[in-house]
From TrEMBL:
UniProt entry tagged with the keyword Ribonucleoprotein: no
The Mandelate racemase/muconate lactonizing enzyme C-terminal domain, residue ranges: 147-244
Organism domain of life: Bacteria
Organism per entry: Kribbella shirazensis
Cofactor(s) listed in the protein's UniProt record: Mg(2+)
Keyword rRNA-binding part of the UniProt annotation: no
Name the record gives this protein: L-alanine-DL-glutamate epimerase-like enolase superfamily enzyme
Entries under Pfam families matching the protein: MR_MLE_C, MR_MLE_N
GO terms (BP aspect): carbohydrate catabolic process
Transmembrane segments annotated in the record for this chain: none
Coiled coil spans: none
GO molecular function, one term: hydro-lyase activity
Highest classification ranks of the organism: Bacteria, Bacillati, Actinomycetota, Actinomycetes, Propionibacteriales
Amino acid sequence: MKITGVTVDVTSEPKAHPVQDAIQLLDRNGVTRVRIDTDDGVSGESATYFGRVESSPAVMAKIVTDQLAPAIMGEDPTVIRGIRRKLQVLTDYQGTAGLSSYGISAIDQALWDLLGKSLDVPVWKLLGAQRTAIPAYAMVGWLELDVAGLERVCAQAMEQGFHGVKMKVGGGPLTEDVQRIKAVRNVIGPDAPLMVDANQAFEYGEALRRGRVYEEFDCRWFEEPLPAGDTDGHVRLAEKLDIPIATGENRYGQAAFRDLIARGGVGVVQPDLRRAGGLTDCLEIGLMAAGFGVPYASHGGGAHIHVLAALPNTIYVESGLLPKGVQLVDGCYPLPTEPGLSSWDG
């Protein structure tokens, strides 16, 4: 089986309901879709969410179409790690981290989808499943919501059967965070997991100050308290706080996780499929974390659920509110049964 074609299409449109975190407004739905065809008639596809800027999906598509796709024509699509390495070398001079990683991830996911479809099995079975259902929490506590809106959406998430919820912090003074955390805790109860996410908003001193307060509310973890690349800061913060530090979504490739994990700077590792490089890199990051006894929770859902099924250290899949027709079972999302990467849109 050989790769005979790669096609890319994009969409970009305003969000019906823009959402806000501590540093940015996410007001667009941009998607880049990649399809890989073979001479056996089997195809694989991926869909990559990309962006706040209208032109962003088209910029990524240009990299895939003009640079990455020509390099994999004629290749055996089942040699996924070999193709990954080839594309990493190809993009090294311009910088593999960044847009190149998004493109490599899109190809990596399409290749896994293709392999699963060629063997008529879901990808999680190819990765060696550890479990058949993933505990889920709802990321619903965005900062554009007032307290009443925050309470409503968190209550809805619990009614849908989620284990717990995550909320954004850092958009205002600490007193505002406390007010919002108290409101959510009153809605979800004293025992449900409550995660807080600062989206890299703080410097070390402020992260330490706020982290000590978040601990008082028994928050499950403190996510992205510092700029993503500040490994030293994460290590120092983890030494001072009891609350686990969760981070990883803005790190590119598995090498960026090595020192962070080995030095104890992360208590919950959270790669992002797009930035890490795809299912292949996320799986390897997760296994590296497992070797150090660090739990793994996805950034986002979708195709990531296949990796979560395979890792021994998985604790959660992240989701928004459930789409119509989807139900959790005992707070868990069941794995897809269709061949390839067919999965829920988390």
